[in-house]
């Protein structure tokens, strides 16, 4: 396949592909789209950032009848963050399909608005997490009798997180004649077992797991366990990266390492499964808008992250297997850009490094020296600061209203304002760090869209 016009896609979907700037399909799209569009069940293994969302998104949209007001496609994801990302991409692909309702249904959010949306009329596409889908299904608010396509995205992570029982119940409530797609980073035994339940005579596709992209510069450092935090701070200061994800194997380590980096002056935040949904959302907003330059995350929390121009990935703890290593470092060096992957390795973790070396089939690059850590509070902070406004879509607030208040009454130049994100009841705007206090004072003293809202700095 040389370009997307080679696929039997509807004209509306080709408009969506063009609007997103896609030209040539990625390997996973080239391999999986033909059987998907032919109506076959597919089990696919592909690394993070390979383009699988567009593959199943195009497949499910191609089967939809926009005039039929019932749920025709269901996508199950392990986390709210991934579900949001998938739903956004499906909406972009469907930009030329009129009157299409794509609804995200996830736990950690109030149930009432989701029930209200379902009561208005059924969405044609539902993207959600298994627990909340199961809950809404049991309340008879979500109707799955019309599902034509079921997608299990990141199936291995959903099973790792204990979602097997909800997934099996959900599968049992969908029509047997549906088309089913399963995408997974690994083909573990549990994934194989659930595929036997969900899929019929599937086409198996495996793409890109053998080695990481050649654009990623991989370096390894042997460290004393007691000096890992100092070593990490030294590497970050030496590299001067604007955005970096640091991977830890436990939630406790993620919190501890983020605190340690804050001590050195980095704008570091932790992201893990013990956090409340709202706190997780705020951390991601701050990382994406450059108010946080180091995100310290566990694997499950970081699955589904889609950060443009991620400069570096650092393994604070060595991952337990080569597949996880590849998924971690695959978040940098995307779309042909250069990336950096640094790994701290204690003597006890050397066998894990050896497994990675065996998988890649070439020697790892070991560095002999680690740069010195900066002094306390001397590391450069993130360029931006985030202001939270206690108003959102329910208050009819739009990005233009926030921008107008900051460049008008608050007197900030447009160049000092970064990303603006609007949620249902709150909004976030990134402002240059040097301008943040002035912007905060003026917004609290003035008005946005003719009304006064509480604004605070995160």
Q: List the quaternary state of the chains.
A: single chain
Mean pLDDT equals 89
What share of the residues lie within helices?
25-40%
Biggest pleated sheet: 7 strands, parallel
Features:
alpha/beta, globular, 458 residues, six-stranded parallel β-sheet, single chain, 17 helices
Please explain how this structure is put together.
The protein is 37% helix and 18% strand. It is built from 17 helices and 17 strands. It has a seven-stranded parallel beta sheet, with helices on both faces. α12 links the parallel β10 and β11. The longest helix has 14 residues, at 80-93. The protein is globular. It starts with 10 loop residues before the first helix and ends with a strand.
Topology of this protein?
Elements: H1 11-19, H2 27-37, E1 42-45, H3 52-63, E2 73-76, H4 80-93, E3 102-105, H5 111-120, E4 125-128, H6 130-138, E5 149-152, H7 155-160, H8 164-172, E6 179-184, H9 189-198, E7 203-206, E8 216-222, H10 228-239, E9 244-247, H11 251-264, E10 268-271, H12 277-288, E11 294-297, H13 299-302, E12 312-315, H14 322-329, E13 339-345, H15 350-360, E14 384-389, H16 399-407, E15 417-422, E16 427-432, H17 436-445, E17 455-457
Parallel strand pairs: 1-6, 1-7, 2-4, 2-5, 3-4, 5-6, 8-13, 9-11, 9-12, 10-11, 12-13
Antiparallel strand pairs: 14-16, 14-17, 15-16
Helix pairs in contact: 2-3, 3-4, 6-8
